[in-house]
Amino acid sequence: MSDKPFNYGGQAVLEGVMMRGSRALAVAVRNPEGEIVTRVEPVNQALYSGPISRIPFLRGLTLIWDALGLGMRCLMFSADVALGEEDEESFSGPVAWGTMAVSFTFAIGLFFVLPSLVVGLIDDRIASSLLSNLLEGAIRLLLFVGYVWLIGHLPDIERVFAYHGAEHKTVNAYEAGAELTPESVRRFTTVHPRCGTAFVLSVAVISILLFSLLGRPALWLRVLSRVVLIPVVAGVAYEYTRFSARHIDKAWMRVIATPNLAMQRLTTREPEPDMLEVAITAFNCMMAAERAQIEESESPVSEAAVS
Fold first, then answer.
1. For residues 279 and 193, what is the distance between their CA atoms, to the nearest angstrom?
2. DSSP, res 249
3. H and E: helices and strands count for the chain
4. Among 20, 75, 65, which Cα is nearest to 43's?
5. CB under 8 Å to 88, separation ≥6 — which residues?
6. How far apart are CA 171 and CA 2, in angstroms?
7. Which strands, in side-by-side order, build the sheet including 36-42?
């Protein structure tokens, strides 16, 4: 892999892909008529290339929150396009934020609160606090893996996972310096060290390690501590994911990252050629928008503008 630092990423959406850089994002979706509909918008450069992006842990929290918002908005836009109802308005608003809040609450309840409550029912029969916390972590990890495995068998989600694979193949191809055509991109792997799946699995594992140090408080305090410490776990997981992606070319890191890369086999599928076309379109649109912003920022100010 090149020594050049890459900031490109994205996510699969309904019948499409979102690609994000440090200056712009683009989402490309295939509508019911078979046409590719695109939308481009700038991202918050203060988060992705400003001072915050250089502060460990804090940058993870801000970038994760921004990514959640961008991802939800792009998902809603893709749903409109897939249904043939796209409009010209920016893909944002109270519905997007409300949907994200509901989804976030569901995830916290399922993966953080529920394991604590389950262990709380039998905690008086567990020999030590360490075993109690490890059992809670094991339940959390099994819930996550089981949930991903289960939804991956739904036909609509299988298509989303195939677009996820197309996203990874496209980014991998670009980072390898390959030509961005469906024929070229299809040769690349569907796994990538900066994948959100790897981040979420890291959250689950790091939470096991951190929560195992907290003893055995009362159930209400146990549940509260899990929720309150989510930002801490997320910040550490982000830094680990960033570190592992930077050193993935080293043999020792590939061994450590094996579970994260293996987990992506559950969240990606081999894409069809038309899916690769959509992912490449999104990436090219994002790159074009970034180049335009760079050229605009580097262009000299005209005399008329300052007169």
1. 18
2. T
3. 14, 4
4. 20
5. none
6. 13
7. 9-13, 16-20, 24-30, 36-42
pTM (2 d.p.): 0.85
Report the alpha-carbon distance of residue 281 to residue 258 in Å, rounded.
30
CB 38 within 8 A of CB 27: yes
Determine the Cα angle at 98 with ends 93 and 100, to 5°.
Answer: 100
| Closest CA relative to residue 20, chosen from 28, 244, 302, 183 | 28
CA angle 255, 259, 264 (to 5 degrees): 125
The span from the CA of 301 to the CA of 270, in Å, is 48
Q: Please list the alpha-helical segments (H only) found in 42-179.
A: 45-48, 58-82, 94-108, 114-122, 129-151, 155-175
Q: Which residue has the tokens 């990538």?
A: 192
Spatial separation of the C-alpha atoms in residues 117 and 229, rounded to whole Å: 17
Q: Coil, helix or strand for 170?
A: helix
Asked if 204 contacts 147 with a C-beta cutoff of 8 angstroms, the reply is: no
DSSP state of 93: S
Q: Distance (Å, rounded) from C-alpha 155 to C-alpha 11? A: 18
CB 215 within 8 Å of CB 136: no
Walk along the chain (307 residues) in steps of 10 and give the mean pLDDT of each run.
58 95 92 94 80 84 83 87 65 65 88 94 92 95 94 94 97 95 96 88 92 91 94 92 88 90 93 97 96 80 42
HEC secondary structure over 13-44: ECCEEEEECCCEEEEEEECCCCCEEEEEEECC
Domain ranges of the chain: 9-306
